[in-house]
Amino acid sequence: MKLQHSIMVGILDRYADRFTEFQPPVPLEERMQRAARIPGASGVELVYPADLTDRERARELVSASGLAVSAVNLNIKSEPIWRNGSFTNPDPEIRERAVTYLTTAMDLAADLGSDMVTMCPLMDGWDYSFQVDYIDQWRWLVDGLKRALDHRSDVKVSIEYKAFESRTQITVPDVGTTLHLCDRVGRDHLGVTMDVGHALIAGETPAMSATMAHEAGRLFYVHFNDNNRGWDWDIVPGAVHVWEMLETIFYLEKLGWEGWLAYDVFTKHGDPGDAFEATIRSMDSLVRLLDKIGRDRLQDLIDNATPAEATAQLLACLVD
To answer: Which one of 69, 79, 262, 313 is most buried, counting C-beta atoms within 10 A?
Structure first.
């Protein structure tokens, strides 16, 4: 399987939590130059509006980098206007602004040679019982997406689901809800960004989540990262869940999926560009491990071995 590696250039920028700053702010020009130096990277994921306020400058930087734009990532969570939600905000003017942001991101993606907008509506949800009207929220979300998607059909919109953060409950928390949302909106160019780390914290098996989305014709984009299932720590794939990462790659290959893999990996230690380089090396090593074990052998373990025997054979492959 030939992996298409994309760098999320926003992660090369400032990184902080509520306690401390781990990485300083970095201008887009420097981030694009750093992304272009990462071995194995062939694409970038840019953020709207942060990276694309100057469209012409962004186009020049993309051209100079020699990298393709895998997707435009629509940020509808960071600005103060989204504090009470974007597509589910009680204020109709703010809901309309969310629609406008999405249609603008679609136009920018096309202008940059991409056919993909990915968005994670983290402010659409709730924190307490009786805080929001679930009927209104769902209807507003479906209606807003319908109107935005009718803007153009040559750019896909991919929903990145997440169980929690920034809300304690998010309106699209898992793959099943996201696929249901796609069906309710009823537009073929609406699909799923399967973030492996988000699948983990949702209690999912990422390979199964990818399979569900693909079989529905809705697997548009994939983010790889890892965590301990307790929180979305965005660490290097395989740092915790080696077998889940390997199984996800195995099924993406088995399904014949050929889309982009973008890496939602933050680092508190060292240079973020170096962390991306290590991430790509880790992914390539997982593919080599697949080669070593053998696809036919893995399928035979699935079809014929007991789980205990399969586990023993897989572990033996690491030391033999």
So the answer is: 262
